[in-house]
Design a protein that fits this description.
The structure holds two protein chains of two kinds. By secondary structure, chain A is of the alpha+beta class. In chain A, about 10% of the residues lie in helices and about 20% in strands. A three-stranded antiparallel sheet of chain A has the order 1-2-3. By secondary structure, chain B is of the alpha/beta class. Chain B has a single domain, classed as Thiamin diphosphate (ThDP)-binding fold, Pyr/PP domains (Rossmann fold, 3-Layer(aba) Sandwich), CATH 3.40.50.970. Helices cover about 35% and strands about 20% of the residues of chain B. Chain B has ten helices and ten strands. In chain B, the strands form two sheets. An eight-stranded mixed sheet of chain B has the order 2-1-3-4-8-7-10-9, with helices on both faces. Chain B has a two-stranded antiparallel ribbon with strand order 5-6. Chain B is globular. Classes of the chains: A alpha+beta, B alpha/beta. At the A-B interface, strand 2, helix 1 and strand 3 of A face helix 1, helix 7 and helix 9 of B. The structure holds thiamine diphosphate and iron/sulfur cluster (3 copies). The site of one iron/sulfur cluster has 12 residues of chain B, from helix 8.
Chain lengths: ~90, ~280
C-alpha cells in the first residue's frame, strides 16, 4: 500500500550542517523530536525553528545564524536525542 | 577531527535503536549524555576500559537507558537493579557497574536495596533520575514528589513531604553523594567523572524533566518551559550541607557535591586490606 503524504510534509533524513570559519553545527535530522530545547538554550540564537519535517513528522531546527555561533556546545549537551553536534574547525 | 557525519557519543550508543522511546524534550537523554561523556573521558585517560563498563537497570523510563548504551547491560526487575549489580560486581570485581533508575525504581520499590548497598559501601555507582513521578506508569505520586504538587494520584495536591534520598544515603556509609540536574549537563558529567575515579558506594541524584506526565499535571506541558522552570529552581552550591538538601519546589532545589570520603569499600574489607 502506498501512503500519500500531504504536500507540505517534506521528509528529510539528511545531516543538516552549517559552518562558520570556526565552528560547524550538525543536526542529525531523523533523531530530532522538535522539543525546542536547543533553540531556547543557544545563547546567541544560532538555531531557529525549521519548516521541514523528518520521517517521523518532527520539524528539526536549522542553524540559520551560524556566523553567531560561539562553539559553547550547549545545544549538543542539552539535546535529549543526541541529534546535534558541534565541531571546532579552526583556531 | 571527526568527519562531520557522526555524533561524538555514537560509539557508545546502539544507534540502530535511535530515536529512543523517550518523549520529546524528556530529560533522561540529557542525563545519559552527561554520564556517557564522563565515561568517555575516563576511557580516554586509560583509567577505564570500555569492555568493563556494565549498565544495570530495573524498570521505568529511566531504566530504559540500558537499551541504548553500547556497553554490556542488564535490564532486570523493577527495584532489583542494585541487587543484580551487587552480584555482578562481586563475581567480577574489575567491572565498573553502573545502576541507573527512576526514583520509584531506586528509592521506592528498590529502597531497601539502596539502604543496604550504601550501608556496605558497595562498589557501585547508582544514578537516580528524579523526575518527581512514576513516569512510565502514567505519572503517579513518587517518593520524591514535592509537597503540594499535582500528579495523577494526588488531584488535590501531594499531602506528603518528599523523601530526601541524598540525606538518607548520606546518613549511611556511602563514599560519594551528589545531586545534579539535567538543566546543568556539565555538572552531571563532572560528578559522574568524579565518581568514576572513586571506590565504594557512589550515589548521584539527577533532577530531570518529564514534560509528558509530570509537566502535564503541573500545567507545564511544553518541554522548554518545563526545562526553564526546573532550571530556575536549581541552586548550585560548591559544598552544600546535608541540611540544605530537602527537595522544596517553592524555595529551590540545591545541587552540588554533598559528601566525599574515601572509606574502605565492601571489596576492600572482603580482601582484608582496609585502610
Ligand atoms: C514489581 C513491579 N511492580 C510494579 C511495576 C509497574 N511499574 C513499571 S515502571 C514503574 C515506576 C516507574 O517510575 P520510576 O521508577 O520513578 O521511573 P520513571 O519511569 O519515572 O523514570 C512501576 C511502578 C513493575 N513493572 N514491576
Ligand atoms: S555551540 Fe553554542 S552558540 Fe553554537 S549553536 Fe550550539 S548553543 Fe548556539
Ligand atoms: S534539542 Fe534536539 S530534539 Fe530538541 S529540537 Fe533541538 S535537535 Fe531537536
Ligand atoms: S513519560 Fe516522562 S519520563 Fe517517561 S519518557 Fe516521557 S517525558 Fe520522559
Amino acid at each position: 500500500m502506498v501512503i500519500e503524504l500531504p504536500a507540505h510534509v517534506l521528509t528529510d533524513t539528511r545531516l543538516v550542517s552549517a559552518s562558520s570559519t570556526r565552528f560547524r553545527v550538525n543536526i542529525i535530522t531523523s533523531r530530532c523530536k522538535e522539543c525546542g530545547i536547543c533553540i531556547g538554550i543557544c545563547p546567541t540564537k544560532v538555531l531557529v525553528k525549521g519548516s521541514k519535517h523528518n520521517e517521523y513528522g518532527f520539524r528539526y531546527p536549522t542553524p540559520a545564524n551560524i556566523e553567531k555561533c560561539i562553539g559553547c556546545k550547549l545545544c549538543e549537551y542539552n539535546c535529549p536525542e543526541f541529534a546535534i553536534f558541534v565541531e571546532v574547525l579552526g583556531k | 577531527m571527526p568527519s562531520g557525519n557522526s555524533h561524538p557519543l555514537d560509539q557508545y550508543l546502539r544507534t540502530a535503536r535511535l530515536p529512543h522511546i523517550w518523549c520529546p524534550g524528556c530529560g533522561i537523554g540529557i542525563a545519559l549524555g552527561g554520564v556517557i561523556r564522563a565515561i568517555d573521558k575516563r576511557i580516554k585517560e586509560g583509567v577505564l576500559k570500555k569492555e568493563n563498563v556494565v549498565f544495570v537497570t530495573g524498570i521505568g523510563c529511566s531504566a530504559r537507558t540500558s537499551f541504548y548504551v553500547n556497553f554490556d547491560a542488564a535490564h532486570t526487575l523493577h527495584g532489583r537493579a542494585i541487587a543484580f549489580a551487587t552480584g555482578a560486581k562481586l563475581a567480577k570485581p574489575e567491572l565498573e557497574v553502573i545502576v541507573i533508575g527512576g526514583d520509584g525504581d531506586i528509592a521506592g520499590i528498590g529502597g531497601n536495596h539502596l539502604l543496604h548497598a550504601a550501608k556496605r559501601n558497595m562498589d557501585l555507582i547508582v544514578l537516580m533520575i528524579t523526575n518527581f513521578v512514576y513516569a512510565m506508569t502514567g505519572g503517579q505520586v513518587a517518593p520524591t514528589t514535592p509537597l503540594g504538587l499535582y500528579t495523577t494520584t494526588t488531584p488535590h495536591g501531594n499531602p506528603e513531604p518528599p523523601l530526601n534520598v541524598v540525606k538518607v544515603v548520606s546518613s549511611l556509609n556511602a563514599n560519594y553523594v551528589a545531586r545534579a540536574s539535567v538543566t546543568h549537563p556539565l555538572l552531571v558529567e563532572q560528578y559522574m567523572y568524579k565518581a568514576l575515579g572513586m571506590r565504594g558506594f557512589r550515589f548521584i541524584e539527577i533532577l530531570s524533566t518529564c514534560p509528558e506526565v509530570f509537566g502535564r499535571h503541573i500545567g507545564v506541558r511544553d518541554p522548554l518551559t518545563l526545562y526553564n522552570s526546573l532550571r530556575s529552581k536549581v541552586i548550585i552550591k560548591q559544598s552544600p550541607s546535608i541540611d540544605e538538601s530537602d527537595l522544596d519546589w517553592e524555595k529551590g532545589l540545591v545541587i552540588g557535591e554533598y559528601l566525599i570520603r574515601d572509606n574502605p569499600s565492601f571489596l576492600d574489607r572482603i580482601k582484608g586490606g582496609s585502610k
